[in-house]
Design goal:
The longest helix has about 35 residues. Strand 1 and strand 2 form a beta hairpin. This protein has a domain of about 30 residues. By secondary structure, it is mainly α. The protein is about 35% helix and about 5% strand. The chain has 2 helices and 2 strands.
Length: about 160
């Protein structure tokens, strides 16, 4: 028989490959200074004032055309020239439209109650029959309740 095994030496802690490393140091170089971005180039469409001037002229022409179309009517304008010392007067004749007044007379006629139409007569007959059946069923219900009370049962 063999004897007990001799004790083994403790396992050394794991070591990184290639030996110990030094802590990382920042690279020495240029210092970074924050700068503003370069300015954008000017917008070419509105870079010159001509575009705004053309837009204004077009708007004025459009306004004149709309005003001419709306204001055009068949009225005659008479311009009288007088002596040099008096100002020029312009007269436009206008016609006054007559007012139209409408008068209405409302007459309400009441007539005696007409005889029921055939459809109404049928409805009335059905209504009377239904009311008659209702009274009959209510009487039967009361009778059944009395019978239950006589037998000693609770009435719902």
């Amino acid at each position: 028989m063999s004897g007990p095994e001799p004790p083994r030496p403790p396992v050394p802690p794991t070591q990184p490959l290639g030996g110990p490393r030094q802590p990382r140091q920042p690279v020495a170089g240029e210092r970074v200074v924050e700068r503003l971005p370069p300015e954008l180039p000017p917008d070419r469409r509105w870079g010159s004032p001509w575009a705004a001037i053309v837009a204004g002229i077009l708007g004025a022409l459009l306004g004149v055309l709309i005003g001419f179309a709306v204001g055009k009517n068949n009225a005659k304008t008479v311009t009288e020239t007088s002596r040099a010392s008096q100002p020029v007067t312009t007269q436009t004749p206008t016609a006054v439209q007559p007012k139209v007044e409408v008068h209405t007379n409302t007459v309400t006629v009441t007539t005696p109650t007409p005889t029921p139409a055939p459809a109404n007569a049928e409805s009335e007959a059905r209504l009377r029959e239904t009311e008659k059946n209702l009274r009959k069923l209510e009487k039967e219900n009361e009778e059944l309740k009395r019978q239950l009370e006589r037998e000693g049962r609770a009435v719902p």
